[in-house]
Write a structure and sequence with these properties.
Layout: H1 16-32, H2 39-48, H3 67-70, E1 81-84, H4 90-103, E2 109-112, H5 119-122, E3 132-137, E4 146-151, H6 157-169, E5 173-177, H7 186-202, H8 208-217, H9 228-235, H10 237-247, H11 259-266, H12 283-301
Parallel strand pairs: 1-2, 2-3, 4-5
Antiparallel strand pairs: 3-4
Helix pairs in contact: 1-2, 9-10
């Protein structure tokens, strides 16, 4: 049963309930429109957050953001906390956490939803750095269970455990990232793949559609049940070593964004936003792709 989280200071209350209600509202609307087929999954969500409460506290006013709409309750075992989900701008996040650290009691957990920025850098101006932690959700967060709980250089083990415990309580799948590196675990893996995929297109090895098809119809089918290191163990580390000894020198190693990617951005070819990116996107194809993704995630989330 989900504990009744009762923070001791209303300044540390945030909008987990607001976030959750908007997501469920949107999901139900999609269901009523015939877009989803999993009523039971949606019905279960309100119970998971029954003990989480949101309190508006205008006294925390911090332009240009509104605390009551951008904070996330992270109070496990009676320890209150706040989480932010503002734009990925280091200076903005630093200001927010400096202010929050100044107004919240020392035992309040302060969590950031950054996907790539160093937790240590975000906490730089705060006095109580040990209570600042990363909680990186993956989109769409109401369907993708994973949350990376990232320990900064000064984050205490108690802070990591507190965030981890609440995320477990509300039905997420938290994992501990014990070293603060840009991109954490998931985005380092994801963008290593994207860098190679773009390089393959840029060098004329295959077109974009073929690259995506190779992933979706090939090794991507194994990933939900066989991670890369499990796969390495399965085929044998001796074979993995032999393959790496030959192929690694041929893989993309650039530390800068691809010239092809830069060229497309400068030309306004931004993908779904503009109707063309690495591939061409009609409104119908965009809609179908989004629907396929959501239906796929709903099946997995059951």
């Amino acid at each position: 049963m989900t504990p009744a989280f009762r923070p001791r200071d209303e300044r540390g209350i945030a909008a987990l309930r607001w976030w959750h209600d908007r997501c469920v509202e949107w999901c139900y609307q999609r269901f009523e429109d015939g877009k989803f087929g999993d009523q039971k999954y949606l019905d279960d969500w309100p119970d998971r957050f029954a003990g989480v409460h949101v309190v508006d506290h205008p006294g925390v006013g911090l332009a240009p953001w509104n605390v009551s709409r951008h904070e996330l309750v992270l109070n496990g075992n009676g320890v209150p906390g706040i989480g932010e989900a503002v734009a990925e701008k280091l200076e903005l996040k630093r200001e927010i956490f400096q202010r929050l650290d100044a107004i919240c009691p020392p035992d309040v957990i302060l969590a950031t939803n950054t996907s790539v920025i160093s937790i240590t850098e975000i906490a730089e101006r705060a006095r109580n750095k040990e209570r600042i932690v990363g909680t990186h959700f993956w989109n769409p967060p109401y369907l993708v269970p994973l949350v990376e709980v990232v320990r900064g250089m000064h984050t205490s083990p108690q802070t990591v455990d507190g965030a981890y415990d609440l995320l477990k309580c509300v039905g997420k799948h938290p994992v501990r990232v014990m070293k603060d590196v840009p991109g954490f675990v998931g985005n380092r893996l994801q963008h290593a793949l994207w860098r190679e995929a773009i390089s393959i297109v840029e060098n004329g090895v295959a077109d974009a559609a073929t690259v995506d098809e190779v992933v979706k119809s090939g090794f991507g089918l194994r990933l939900p049940v066989l991670g890369p290191l499990e796969n390495a163990d399965l085929v044998g580390l001796d074979l993995t070593f032999q393959i790496h000894d030959y192929i690694l020198k041929y893989l993309e190693r650039s530390t800068q964004p691809s010239p092809l990617l830069k060229q497309k951005v400068e030309a306004g070819e931004l993908g779904f936003k503009s109707g063309v990116g690495f591939q061409e996107w009609s409104e119908e194809r965009i809609s179908k792709t989004r629907e396929n993704l959501l239906n796929h995630l709903l099946k997995i989330a059951r």
